[in-house]
Amino acid sequence: MTAVSAPASSANLGPGFDVLGLALSRRTVVGNGPAPASGSALDESHPAVVAHRTAGGSGPLWGIGGIPMGRGLGFSGAARVAGAMLAHVERDGPAASNDRGTRTEVLRLTAALEGHPDNVAASVFGGLVIADGDLVSPAPVHLGLSVVVWVPAADSTSTDRSRATLPAVVARPDAVFNMARVAALVMAASAGDLALLRRSVADRLHQDIRFSAARASAEAAAAMESVSGVHGVWLSGSGPTVAGWARADELEQVAAAVREATGASADQVLGLAVDREGVRVEP
Predict the structure, then answer these.
(1) Minimal CB count within 10 Å: which of 12, 120, 220, 244?
(2) Domains of the chain
């Protein structure tokens, strides 16, 4: 039996539309051979299986889900990355998962399947990434930073439908605004500058439009912004999950305060570390 896992991700981080991705400490596992008791068989339409077949793999697969589906935490991207890497590991051995060329090949394949590179780039390489096609630049994240996320109990979002609501052309001042915020965000994440992080998550390209179609997410974002210890809030991917920066040494208290502010249950608000490893072979 061989198993590969890939981390969840939060894309955009506010202004970095289709460019920024951040890997988070929830994983989905995909494997071959006898399934463990916690695993379930995957059908041919599952994104992990499609990616596995596209990368040259064959045979039945099983999965263990650790990432909520359709919530803006990169489930499909992580599943595709795990499935594609599994095919390489089956063919070339476990060391393939750490080979830069293999990871780049997995990125190209999964980005084509996903339609954009930000989520899959984070799941492949871990950490904070700046994605431009198959060119991925890692950006350091201060060790003192973590992320708190609010995940709605029932709502889900179709990325394709959400994209269809966005304008094809944007005004120059809005584009300039976002470029400045992306540059500031990358610097702030590296330095752990909480005040700059709070300012740099602002966006003029997509978030307001998406929030207008997701009232619960907009209300959760407003509530999170009022919580002491949350340093900048953004819509994770196309939503409906909302995420915010927090200090790692305050994460438990901040998550509890977000639950209280949003009226959410314990399993709706998660305190997550930044995953710095990316896709990997499991023991």
Answers:
(1) 244
(2) 3-139 (3.30.230.10), 145-272 (3.30.70.890)
